[in-house]
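seq/struct pair 1
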Amino acid sequence: MKTSTTAACLAFFTGLGCALPALPQSYPSKPIRLIMPFTAGIGTDVFARKLAPIVGESIGQPLLSENRTGASGAIGAEAVFKAAPDGYTILFSSASPTVALPHTVKDLPFDPNGFTAIMGAIEPLIVIVIKPSLQANTMREFVELARKNPGKLSYGSSGMGSTFHMFGESLNRTAGIDVLHVPYKGTNLGVNDIMAGLLDMGFGSLAGIGPLIKAGKVRAVAILGEKRASVMPDMPAVTDVIPGVDISPGWFAFWGPPKLPQPIVSRFHGELVKAMNTPEMKAWYDTNGFAYLGTTPEELRTMQKTGLETYGRILKTLKITPQ
C-alpha cells in the first residue's frame, strides 16, 4: 500500500499519470552526469553548478556538471541522446538543440523530438553589451553608428543558428544595418573579445556578465527581451528601441535520453522542484534576474513545439536555410 501511494503521489505531482512501473529502489546508485552544451562560467553554468549540490544531497548521489561545447549545442545534445536511458546522463540546455538546430542543420545526429522531456527550468535575463570604446552609450546610438559604418561592426553569438545569431540577423533586417556575425563556442568567449577590443557587440546573462558591467569592462545597452527587468529598471528592453525585432525562445530545460522510464523522470523532476524552490535558490534568482519556470514534462514539450514554430517563422523571414 505504501509503495502504490508513493507512486501515485509522484504521478500526480508531475502530471505523468498513474500507470507507471515501480521506480527501482536502487536509483540513483551512482553519480549522475549533467551534460551542459555551453561554456563554463556563463550565468546558466553558474546556475547549474549552484543547483547541483542541492539536488545531489537530496537525491543521495552527486550531480557531476560536464561542459560539452561546440556546434551550437549539438555535440552535448548528441552525447545525451545516445546515452543509456537509465537516468545517469541528463541534458541541461538552452532551447537551441531542440528548437533551433532542426531548422539550421541539415543532418542532425539526433532527433530533437526524441529526447525525454523532464522540466522547463529557467529563463535567464540576457543583457546586450557593447565595446566601451565605441562612440555609443545606448542601443539606439549603436544602431546609428552601425548605419554610418555598414559592414564595419561585429557581433558575437554562441554559434550558427543559436538564439543570439537569430537576434543579430533580425536586428540587421529590422534596423536596416549590416553588423557582421562572428560565431563562438560560447557567449563568454565573445564577451572576452569585446573586452579585448576585437568585437563590438555581444550577449550575456546578468549572472555571468553583471560584474563586468559594474567594472566598466563592457557597456550594457539593452535587455534582450520584450520588457524591462526589475533588477535593471533603467535598462530598456530592446523591443522598445527596435520595434518589430524578433526575440527567440530563451528558456533552459532538463532533458533525458529517448525512452527514459517515467518513474525516473518523476523522481528527478521532483528533486529539481524541491531544490529550485529552496530559499537559497529563490534569492539567487532575484539577485541575478532569472525567471523560475518549473514546468511539467508536458508543458516543456508544448514549449518545444511553440519554439519550433517560432524559429521556423523567424528563419523563413530572414531567408536562412539549413546548412
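seq/struct pair 2
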Amino acid sequence: MQHFLWEVKKRLFLTYSIRLLFDACVKWHGKVSYELGSYCINQTYNGRVPHRLPLLILECDKNHMDSPLFVKICDEIIGQQKTLNGIGTYGEKTIHSVLKSYYSPDILSQEIRVGGFVADIYTGNEIIEIQTRNFNKLRRKLETFLAFAPVTIVYPVPHIKWLRWVNPQTGEISPPRKSPKLGTPYAIFPELYRIKEYLLHPNLRLKIVLMDLEEYRFLDGWSRDKKKGSTRCDRLPTELVDEVCINNCSEYLQLIPDGLDKEFTSKDFKKASRLSLGHSQTALNILHYVGAVERIGKSGNSYLYIKNTDQK
C-alpha cells in the first residue's frame, strides 16, 4: 500500500515537473515539437509515456502557466511524500493540496485560524475555502468567516476523468479508462443548495475550477468485479481547463446553459445542461433565489422561467 501511494505521488510530481520543463522551453524557444516532447517523456518515465502528456505539451502556453507557482506545488507534493500516505496535517487529499498552493503559494497564508475555525487560505484581505463536496460542512464556517472578510469558495469539477483501478493486495494499477461523463460548471448546483441562505451575502464569492484528472480507486467493492461500492483512494489533477468566477448575483447568469428558448422549464434546462431532472430543478431553484431567472407562469405542472438580464 505504501509503495502504491508513493508511486502515485511520484507520478503527480513528474507530471508537473515535465509541464514546468516545457513551459521553460516555450519561453526560450517559442515552441516545442511533439517528437522532442515524446523523447523527453520516454527518458523521464523509462519508456512509459503517460496519458495526455504529449497533448499537454502541444497546448503549452506561457501566458497561462505560472512556473514559480508550479514549483511551489511540486515542493509541497514532495513534502507530503515523506509521510508516504499523501495526507497533510488536516487530512487533505491531492486536489485540495494542489489548489491550496495554486491560489496561495505563500505557505504563511495557509491553514490560518479565523474566529475559532481554520481557513484554508487567509491573505489578510480574503478567505479562500477549497471544498470538493459536502458544502453543508461549510455552514458554521461561513457564519463566522462572512462577517470577518470576503470569502471565496473554490469548487473543483472533474472535466475529463480517467479512471484507474488499484489492486489493494498486489498494488497493481490498471491502464487509464476515460469516463464518458464530461464535467461542467453546473455540477455545483446541488452543493449550492446546501448553503442557499448564504448565497446573497455580499461577501460570498464562488470559483468553479474545471480540471482534467486521474482518479484512483481500490478494487474493494461488494460486486463480483469489486468495482461497485469501491473506495476512492485519490484524484490527481493533470490539467487546469477553466475557471468560472461568481463575484455577485448578476454573474450567476454564467450558469445558465446556452441553447435555451426565451421561456423554458426544468425539462428544457435538463436537456441543455445534461443534469438530471432533479438537479435541474435544484439549479433553477438556486437561480431563481439569486435573481438570475424569473418565474412567469406555468406550462402544465412545470414553472416557466426567463433569464433576468436586467439584474444588477
